[in-house]
Specification:
This protein is of the alpha/beta class. It folds into 2 domains: 160 residues, Rossmann fold (3-Layer(aba) Sandwich), CATH 3.40.50.150; 148 residues, no CATH class. Helices cover 36% and strands 14% of the residues. The protein contains 14 helices and 11 strands. The strands form 3 sheets. The chain has a 7-stranded mixed sheet, with helices on both faces. A two-stranded parallel ribbon has the order 1-5. A two-stranded antiparallel ribbon has the order 7-9. The longest helix has 17 residues. It binds S-adenosylmethionine.
Amino acid sequence: MSKQTSERSAVELPSSVTYRNFPRTRYQGSKYKLLPWLADSFQALTFDTALDVFGGTAAVSYLLKTLGKTVYYNDALAFNAQVGTALIENASVTLDEDDVAFIFTQDPNRTYRSFIEETFSDIYFTDEENHWLDIVVQNIHTMECPYKRAMAFWALFQSAISKRPYNLFHRKNLYVRTSNVKRSFGNKATWDRPFDVHFRKFVREANNAVFDNGRDNKVFCLKDEDLQVRADLVYMDPPYIPEKGALTRYRDFYHFLEGICFYHEWKEHLDRDSKHLKLQSESSNWECKEGIHDAFDMLFEKFEEAIMVVSYRKDGIPSIDWIVERLEKRGKQVEVKEVDYKYVLSKKGNLKEVLIVAAQK
Ligand SMILES: C[S@@+](CC[C@H](N)C(=O)[O-])C[C@H]1O[C@@H](n2cnc3c(N)ncnc32)[C@H](O)[C@@H]1O
């Protein structure tokens, strides 16, 4: 494993730079609301570099960045890696009015594809919205600066999630939004708000969240087993398997955003047997009851030398006792902390969110 070094040292951050600047997002398993609680735990530990193996929205990486640490953000999904690039690796680049005008404008000298409009009619968005998406996605892909591009993708992904019933792409259910019925859930006004209005709002939020903590923060887009990064503290918030109830299959739930990241090859990766045209599935030990014990064991072995911090819940497979035992077997001093928490998008009542902190004895 290569030792990552930070060539720049932390700068004194103004008091206005806090995790509160992190834009609110609706993503399954996001730890956004738990950031104050996580902050207390991180502040009690001594470390300089931190790896967020399952970074998701980048909320926890962002917290670590505000604490002045060198942060390595990772997520296996490409759309999430764009989020990490925009808000963690990016230290100063923002989007201005000219950028937004470029993103929204169809270049008359260019030939555009209409893949989304032709493929996803009547599935997630209206035809007019799909047409808008085709133009905007192709314009963003041509932006040269990787940070501007990532900022634009972040704003686009947030806009698309906001306009979706359940904030997911798990069903062909545009009708939920468009049919003339009485609704007991959701926010039709938000779903119907035009893409460009959402987009501008999210650009403002992303711009407001960008800051430099004086460190060379880096983004990786790898499966955990392929990571070759070393850090003093490794934070693990993997996909979670409840004892009862459905799994969160991230690639299946957010496939549409993942497809946008490789727009020109999207067609070849579609699962044509699925009504909602998701991407072809990939198997993962993190999403199967038979494989998850091995997945944890491999992760603990890989990062044995680091302080390991695991976000978990009370009703998960494997049990908390099993996780604690495996960490203790590796010579760790393990502490289990709990807090009551109501999960975004979950129908279950209050559950206990757990933090397992495994430090050197
Ligand atoms: C519980 S979420 C993390 C949420 C994150 N802590 C936050 O606050 O937004 C788990 C994440 O793991 C990612 N993931 C799933 N399998 C992975 C793997 N094998 N390696 C790395 N990331 C993976 C998913 O894309 C998802 O974003």
